[in-house]
């Protein structure tokens, strides 16, 4: 303790040019954390907010009580999705660099935090993602073509050019429209879950935010309401260590894990290896069963790493070591899942290479098709007059006048 | 004098004030080590220390509220909200607290907080990185609302804002951070280097927080505007060959009605322009104030050129932005009426 109060300024363990240092991450051995029954009392499992639920060990073997015992087909489905998402991200990032789209956000390294949970939920459960859960949209049938057309703001864009790229939506697949304002969807998910319970349904809601977003008031509102009403909701914090340039300690991750926010509100908190698809699946399966059986909300922290830039507007080499991801102790979720399938004798390096080539081709072909619905420079274009639609169910007079004003100007 | 763009001018204002007044602190998301997502605080933490240039958690409400607390305790915080579109979680702290602390405490408590925030469209930011919410803040009694249109004004006005014992919300039109923009996205980007207002003293200077500026004198029509549209108005009037008097409001609250009045009494015609939405927008206040002061001098109804009353759509940025075509139509309406 210092002799007088002074403010503490959190520092990341390494800056550009320094050696990556993840010694701050408390790890548990794969399989070492016990899985309590889903109706366990909070006081009996508070340690789960500090431990790290892991299934895959360093040899890619599944270990312990959290092993969800997924079959070959499910594991392969997950790997295919992961490979597709990575191919999609790679293509779209390059398209942004070439000026074909205005903006993009990858989920590189964080794929398992969407795919595992997405597989463990029912299709009728509602998802409220943030902007790094593109895999969820693919899983819920949004379609690669539609997602690309959205990023192009072209004539097939499902939000008719109203949102920036990556702000997807898919009502039919029960995935909410993404907001650019952080954390707003978190308490909304709680409300959706409350409504499901009020209506007598056993559907649940799940939401995702980043570590940085836990600083927003909406996070605390979500946890308060979820706890008070014991809402059937899964609240995920994807702790990828970085919120643009600020290290997770700037959201308060230095003193206690984000999962430990849960018990403070009376909500179970699970701290989970976010790069272990089996663990992300198992944690969601546990929380979903608990919620569906009337056990209320769960807060899950997925410990992962943001492999790429925050967005195409960001340059992470200014604030973190370039090789930090390669030093991350939880590895790469795709390498680990692939390793597990190989270990089981279900997959080979050659099959993975073929799959990657196939996905790359699929993405390339789909991009071509997407461009046929319009690009930013070549038509067909959306009709700008449509910008006045859908603000209200029925267009008020002043908007009709403004729409007419726009038309009149174009005729001149 | 140095050539500065608006980012450098803002950086210089913060640097000068951090140097002059040990009570000044700068805070906000990514403003410290990284230097801000638009680079406005680049190098400030290295020069002035991490206890005076603070990275903040992602919590706009928290940023504004802690700035208030610091202000009450004698500091002079300059808080950055990364995009004006993200300011709303801090709105209660601004409208209910910051704006009223002096009033409700009979001036026994004050919080000299400045809130800086990039605003406006033109960078393909879609509906959550393009808004111009200045009218909402100008509407709140108890805060001053400022929007510069060039580097020279940005520095001088920001220094005054920081020195002001009243809270100031300071909006920075991000489209003109690197150069003036006349509303034509097809033209190559302009730089501040060749612009008179890009000449900025490196040292301390301040500009009053209650004076509009006549940017260009004229006698046929007065165009009252601020921010990015100052440049659109100048270019459009020139294109049309109309001898317009163009006034940059600069400080929306307090409003310098006298400068507007003198001009409109001379020209008899007035167009009000801003990028923000029209309905209950700041232009409505301008129109009301001008017509009240100048009714008997007006030869035509005062017209408005504004953003449409919708969110800012990603795909239709240039259909939304009130560029030269709409400015020209507005000028013609005023010139041809009466």
Short description:
Chain A has 412 residues and is an alpha/beta fold. Helix content of chain A is 36%, strand content 8%.
Which residues of chain B form runs of ≥5 with pLDDT under 50? none
Low-confidence residue ranges of chain A: none
> What is the CA-based Rg of chain A, rounded?
22 Å
Query: Which percent bin holds the helix content of chain B?
Result: 25-40%
Can you tell me the overall shape of chain A?
globular
What is the CATH topology classification name of the largest domain in chain B? Rossmann fold
Give a description of the structure.
The complex is a heterodimer of chains A (412) and B (338). In chain A, a hairpin with a 2-residue loop joins strand 4 and strand 5. The mean pLDDT of chain A is 97. In chain A, helix 1 (72-97) crosses helix 11 and helix 4 packs across helix 11 (349-371). Chain A has two domains: 42-381, Rossmann fold, CATH 3.40.50; 385-412, no CATH class. Chain A contains twelve helices and seven strands. Chain A starts with 71 loop residues before the first helix and ends with a helix. In chain A, strands 1-2-3-7-6 form a five-stranded parallel β-sheet, sandwiched between helices. In chain A, strands 4-5 form a two-stranded antiparallel sheet. Chain A is an alpha/beta fold and 412 residues long. Chain A is 36% helix and 8% strand. Chain B has 338 residues and is of the alpha/beta class. Chain B folds into two domains: 2-176, Thiamin diphosphate (ThDP)-binding fold, Pyr/PP domains (Rossmann fold); 210-336, Rossmann fold, CATH 3.40.50. A seven-stranded mixed β-sheet of chain B has the order 3-2-4-5-7-6-12, sandwiched between helices. In chain B, helix 3 runs parallel beside helix 4 (91-98) and helix 9 crosses helix 10 (282-294). The longest helix of chain B is centred in the N-terminal third of the chain and has 15 residues, at 6-20. The chains are: A alpha/beta (412), B alpha/beta (338). At the A-B interface, helix 12 of A face helix 3 and helix 12 of B.
């Amino acid at each position: 303790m210092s002799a007088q109060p002074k403010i503490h300024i959190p520092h990341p363990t390494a800056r550009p040019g320094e050696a990556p240092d993840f010694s701050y991450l408390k790890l548990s051995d794969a399989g070492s954390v016990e899985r309590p029954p889903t109706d366990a009392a909070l006081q009996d499992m508070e340690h789960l907010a500090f431990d790290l639920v892991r299934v895959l060990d360093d040899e890619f073997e599944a270990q312990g009580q959290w092993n969800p015992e997924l079959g070959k087909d499910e594991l392969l489905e997950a790997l295919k999705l992961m490979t597709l998402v990575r191919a999609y991200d790679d293509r779209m990032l390059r398209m942004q660099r070439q000026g074909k789209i205005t903006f993009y956000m990858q989920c590189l390294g964080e794929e398992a935090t969407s795919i595992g949970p997405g597989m463990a939920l029912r299709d009728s459960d509602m998802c409220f993602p943030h902007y790094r859960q593109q895999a969820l949209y693919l899983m819920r049938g949004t379609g690669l073509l539609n997602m690309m057309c959205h990023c192009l703001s072209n004539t097939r864009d499902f939000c008719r050019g109203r949102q920036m790229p990556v702000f997807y939506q898919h009502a039919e697949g029960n995935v909410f429209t993404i907001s650019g304002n952080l954390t707003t969807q978190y308490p909304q998910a709680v409300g959706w879950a409350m409504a499901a319970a009020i209506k007598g349904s056993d559907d649940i809601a799940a939401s995702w935010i980043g570590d940085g977003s836990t600083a927003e008031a909406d996070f605390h509102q979500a946890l308060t309401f979820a706890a008070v009403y014991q809402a059937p909701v899964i609240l995920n914090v994807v702790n990828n260590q970085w919120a643009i340039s600020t290290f997770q300690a700037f959201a308060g991750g230095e003193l206690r894990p984000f999962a430990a926010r849960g018990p403070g509100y009376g909500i179970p908190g699970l701290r989970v290896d976010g790069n272990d698809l089996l663990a992300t699946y198992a944690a969601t399966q546990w929380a979903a069963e608990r919620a569906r059986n009337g056990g209320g909300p769960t807060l899950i922290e997925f410990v992962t790493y943001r492999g790429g830039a925050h967005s195409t507007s960001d340059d992470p080499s200014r604030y973190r070591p370039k090789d930090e991801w390669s030093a991350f102790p939880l590895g790469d979720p795709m390498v680990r899942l692939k390793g597990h399938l190989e270990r089981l004798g279900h997959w080979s390096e050659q099959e993975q290479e073929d799959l990657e080539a196939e996905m790359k081709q699929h993405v390339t072909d789909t991009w071509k098709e997407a461009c046929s619905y319009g690009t930013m420079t070549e038509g067909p274009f959306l009709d700008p007059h449509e910008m006045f639609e859908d603000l209200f169910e029925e267009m008020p007079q002043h908007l009709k006048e403004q729409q007419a004003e726009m038309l009149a100007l174009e005729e001149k | 004098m140095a050539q500065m763009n608006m980012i450098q001018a803002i950086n210089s204002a913060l640097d000068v004030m951090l140097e002059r007044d040990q009570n000044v602190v700068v805070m906000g998301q990514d403003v410290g080590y990284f230097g801000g997502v638009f680079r406005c605080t680049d190098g400030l933490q290295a020069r002035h220390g991490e206890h005076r240039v603070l990275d903040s958690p992602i919590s706009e409400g928290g940023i504004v509220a802690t700035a208030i607390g610091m202000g009450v305790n004698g500091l002079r915080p300059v808080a950055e909200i990364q995009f004006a579109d993200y300011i709303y979680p801090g709105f209660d702290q601004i409208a209910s607290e910051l704006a009223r602390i002096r009033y409700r405490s009979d001036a026994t408590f004050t919080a000299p907080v400045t809130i800086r925030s990039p605003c406006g469209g033109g960078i393909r930011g879609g509906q959550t990185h393009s808004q111009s919410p200045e009218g909402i803040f100008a509407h709140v009694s108890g805060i001053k609302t400022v929007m510069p249109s060039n580097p020279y004004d940005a520095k001088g006005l920001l220094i005054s804002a920081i020195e002001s014992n009243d809270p100031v919300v300071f909006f920075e039109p991000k489209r003109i951070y690197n150069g003036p923009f006349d509303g034509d996205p097809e033209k190559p980007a302009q730089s501040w280097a060749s612009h008179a207002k890009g000449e900025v003293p490196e040292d301390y200077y301040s500009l009053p927080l209650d004076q509009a500026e006549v940017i260009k004198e004229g006698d046929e029509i007065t165009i009252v505007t601020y921010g990015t549209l100052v440049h659109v108005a100048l270019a459009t009037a020139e294109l049309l060959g109309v001898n317009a008097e163009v006034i940059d409001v600069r400080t929306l609250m307090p409003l310098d009605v006298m400068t507007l009045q003198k001009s409109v009494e001379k020209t008899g015609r007035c167009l009000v322009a801003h990028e923000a939405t029209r309905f209950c927008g700041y232009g409505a206040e301008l129109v009301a104030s001008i017509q009240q002061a100048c009714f008997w001098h007006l030869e035509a109804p005062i017209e408005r050129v504004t953003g449409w009353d919708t969110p800012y759509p990603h795909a239709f940025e240039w259909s939304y932005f009130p560029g030269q075509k709409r400015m020209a139509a507005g000028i013609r309406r005023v010139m041809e009426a009466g």
